[in-house]
Amino acid sequence: MLRRLISTGERLWASLYAFLQLPGRPSQDTDSRVQLSALRIVLLSGITLEAAISLHSSWLGLQRGVYYILVIVIAFYLALLAAIRWSTQHQRLASNGLIVIVYAAGLVIATCVRIPEVQRLGYVFCYSAPLLAGLLRGYRLALALMALNLVPFGLAASGYVMPNVFGIDVTLDTSPLYIHGLLFTFFNFCLPLAVFRILSAVKHSQQHAKRMQDLYEDLFENQGTAVVVCRDDGRVRRGNRLFAQLAGSVIDDQPLSRWLRSTAPEGSAVPSFDAGTEWLAGEGRTQRRVVVRSRFACGDRHFAVSLQDVTELRELQRNLVRSQAEAEYLASHDVVTGLPRPEGMAQWLDRQRATLQAGMVIPVVSCGLGSLRQVNARFGMAQGNQFIVAFANALREAGGKDSYIARTRGSMLTIALPPLPAVQATMAVTRLRRALPHQLQVGSGHVLVELALGAALFPIDSAQAAEVMHRSGVAMELSREGSATAEEIGTPISERAVSRRIAIESALEQAIDDRELHVVYQPQVRSNGQLLGFEALVRWNSPALGAVSPAEFVPVAEQMGCVSRITDYILDEVCRQLALWMAAGAQAPRVAVNLSARDLDRDNLFETVLAAVGRYDVPVGALDLEVTETFLAERPERALAQLKLLREWSFKISIDDFGTGYSSLSKLADLPIDVLKIDRSFLLDLPGNARRERIVRSIVTLANNLHLQVVAEGVERGAQLRFLQMLGVDAYQGFLFHAPAPAEHWTPMLLGGLPSIEDLMLPGPPQFGHSLI
């Protein structure tokens, strides 16, 4: 019980202390907070200390029938309570109310007590008002009240007795004692407590200011930069330790220019020491170079200068300047060949535009080295670098000293020939092509140069250098694919081909977004005549470009880096269609989906494939993933890791276009694959071509020994089918059975059970003929 009483008392005292003192950090002792605290102390102490006098006087007044005493006491107490209540939200009003209460108390004493000596004590009450005003409001009101108090002082000095203006007489025998008691408590307790609160706040503020001064002194001396304080005429008042180390010594009232000298040959007559200016400090071997970090006003007619020692920095900058040309060269040139990057060629072409005469053009020729991939795969990257350096030297020699060569892509160099008349451009490109070597030495051997050329004319094809270079690269890609030749530059055929390729580039990503691409399915047939499954092929019917062949837009997608978006779209469409067939009651056939080189190179391929089958609840075994042999030859480690992860989850892996790549034959046994697809190029002359027959027979034998399923694609004639059946090929794909067709075409057959080879060889609808391939 005692502990509870003690705890309750402690909480009450803490609340009372917080109400009166408004405790806070010294930095928070603002005038208004301290004045509010003093006001509350006066009000609360007055109410508390004068309670006994008020109660006793009210009791005597009631006994003797002087009821005005009770009314006056209640009125004053209500006024004091109201002032306390208003003190938080209306501090000025509460302070003014207290001053009014003091004057009202003095007026009541002077007019309602009919004892002359006591009446004069009422004037004394009024004398406290200026002190209260000074503590709680400010000196202006205090001065005004000092002047006002001349009135009660004059009345007291003249002996004038105030008349009973209200007709109220509250005189009691004990009135002198009450009035003296009020004055005693007010002047002996209330006002001193308020003054003590103000003085305590002042003391705390002084202590805080002293601590802050010590802190600022430490910061000034140890802030990490040299600082000097000067008068507005530039004479030093004080410098910190780091400034003294720079200057050697600091003497007050000396010009700052005595220690800081301008780095310019002729300094300003009146140095301003503005931010960013540099100066020399010290003498001889200890001389340092400093820069003004900031200049700012501090105090009355003073300014401070912050200095940073940049001696080592300037030395480092001088070293950097000496190597700037080399750095710029490395930033703008290819590391392997030393040739400029594409930006350099664009800038060079822009500079040439101003000097070109009318009718003159600059042929910009892009050279694609198809054999670089083969060299890297067979001999390694170092030999590949030697190969491209050797070709760059040959290209420079063939183009002449006035030409400009840049490495625009990994396997593509671009040369800008000297200006010549437009009619001679084709001949100049032809001469360049004939001057280039057909083979180059790599290590101790020679490698054939598989070269594709494409050209554009600056500024006829475009006035923008970057656009001309792009058109040249597009023309090179068309030449590599056999759609155009370098000799066709400037002809309507070449312009149409390049413009169509650029139009495909511009429209392809939007076509993917708008789902203009659609999937068709070409059947794969078992050797026993039953349907094995389908290969999913993508088609694009553009509203603006018409039917765009995969041979056109897939290479563009690979160059643009959006081929993986097409793969994701095909995976989603195939899994969605498999789910529809299964929901309709059909047995889910196997569907093969082609993966590009970029697909095997991305980190989230496994997650993407798994998400597609999971989204539609499709069996993993229904999905085959086809990869090209060429990519396996280029990046075996990366591809192998991806394929192993997919096969561990029971996805079937096929090698597409087998026999067209390099060096992967020796690694075939190490690959996690299930199916080997013989490329259609080996079936063109079968049967009848003895060499091709031996190659196909070897591939089938190898696959059988490795327990791999063999699929022959591109089967178009019965003779081919019979030859392959004789070799024991497991499955076939080609126009002999059916052209690719939309999923709707195959749905009736699948609902009737897996069709036989005879069903598939029935004539398909005309729109699914050879033109769709």
* Spatial order of strands in the largest sheet: 14-15-17-18-19-20-21-22
Instruction: Assign the structural class, choosing from mainly alpha, mainly beta, alpha/beta, alpha+beta, or little secondary structure.
Output: alpha+beta
Could you give the count of β-strands?
22
* Portion of residues within helices: 40-55%
Give a summary of the structure in a few sentences.
With 773 residues, the chain is α+β, with helices and mostly antiparallel strands. It contains 29 helices and 22 strands.
Structure description:
The protein has 773 residues and is α+β, with helices and mostly antiparallel strands. The protein is built from 29 helices and 22 strands. α2 runs antiparallel to α4 (68-86), α4 packs antiparallel against α5 and α7 (129-136) runs antiparallel to α8 (139-148).
Task: Record keyword descriptors for this entry.
disordered C terminus; single chain; six-stranded antiparallel β-sheet; 52% helix; 773 residues; elongated; alpha+beta; eight-stranded mixed beta barrel; 29 helices
Write the layout of secondary structure elements.
Layout lengths: L1 H20 L9 H19 L1 H13 L4 H19 L4 H22 L3 H12 L1 H8 L2 H10 L1 H9 L16 H48 L3 E6 L4 E4 L1 H7 L12 E3 L15 E4 L6 E10 L4 E8 L1 H12 L1 H9 L9 H12 L6 E10 L1 H9 L1 H19 L4 E6 L2 E5 L3 E2 L3 H11 L3 E4 L2 E4 L2 E8 L6 H16 L11 H22 L3 E10 L4 E12 L3 E3 L1 H11 L2 H21 L6 E5 L2 H5 L3 H12 L6 E6 H6 L1 H13 L3 E7 L16 E4 L11 H16 L3 E5 L4 H10 L3 E3 L9 H9 L5 H4 L13
Parallel strand pairs: 15-17, 17-18, 18-19, 19-20, 20-21, 21-22
Antiparallel strand pairs: 1-2, 1-6, 3-4, 4-5, 5-6, 7-9, 7-10, 7-13, 8-9, 11-12, 14-15, 14-22, 15-16
